[in-house]
Amino acid sequence: MKINEIVVISGKGGTGKTSLVASMIPYIKDSVVIADCDVDAPDLHILMNPILEAKEDFFGMKKAKIDKKLCINCGKCQEVCAFGAIDKNININQMKCEGCTTCTLVCEENAISMEMAKTGEIYESNCEYGPMFHARLIPGEEASGKLITMVRRKAKDFARKHSIENIVIDGSPGVACNVISSIMGVQKAVVVTEPTVSGLHDLKRVCELLRKYPIEILVVVNKYTLSQEKTEEIEKFCQESKIDLALKIPFNKEMVRAISKLKIPSLEEKKFFETMGFYKFMEKINKRQSL
């Protein structure tokens, strides 16, 4: 069975990506698995209101650990630590340790070892619209890409096991490794932008990344009425790049009110979504690519 994976991303944070994901989910044709892969700042669960079914720790990287019985306090490890993770009493601050292993190389007593450290948590939940897999990276920790890969793998395994054809992914903003982990292997990518200088700049960057892969790109301009000039620049970029500008969402205070009430905007403001062409947009989302 070919699984239809749709990711929603943005070149920058704060564009309304998660609000759009939540609005799309009730209108996905057939059954769906939801994956929140914005592990650095997960918030899709706020609107989805899922019931937690299972939780597991995520061990994303190795960090240094000192055996005090073997340590002779020579201080060599502290001298070479580029991250200031080892204090003068030869104690390791796990939040600062980057797992570079340099300290193990200079320790002649073999008192330092590298051990897997907990860097996040993975959750399996259920909401009104289907199963949801999400995660949280501990603030300041690394390996977000690995955590996203685990979330997607669990979502895909569940979809295969239960013959669910669609997976909707709330991806990470930007163009770093966490975004690459969010987009690899998907069929469609919805890129949410806004009519600002930074919005257009980051839209170009993320589209440049996406075009390296066989992914259908759909652009959504959120709050487009805030700047007609910048909206026209985005339209021109999409036209010249032969990218589908699939939806323009005008600024509307009722959207803000719906979100503040923890309501899904597309269900709370159906008339507003109908007038902007949201349902035609969802026809494009639900259309399967020819295999």
Describe it for me?
The chain is α/β, with parallel strands linked by helices. It is built from twelve helices and nine strands. The chain has a nine-stranded mixed sheet with strand order 3-4-5-2-6-1-7-8-9, with helices on both faces. The mean pLDDT is 93.
Describe the largest sheet. 9 strands, mixed
* Number of helices, where a helix is a run of at least 4 consecutive DSSP H or I residues: 12
Mean pLDDT: 93
Helical proportion, percent range = 25-40%
Uncertain runs with pLDDT below 50, 5 residues or more?
Answer: none
State which percent range the strand residues make up: 25-35%
For the terminal residues, how far apart are their CA atoms? Answer: 11 Å
One letter per element, helices H and strands E, the order comes to EHEHEHHEEHEHEHEHEHHHH
Summary, kept brief:
The chain is of the alpha/beta class and 291 residues long. It is built from 12 helices and 9 strands. Helices cover 35% and strands 27% of the residues.
What are the defining features of this structure?
291 residues; alpha/beta; 12 helices; 35% helix; elongated
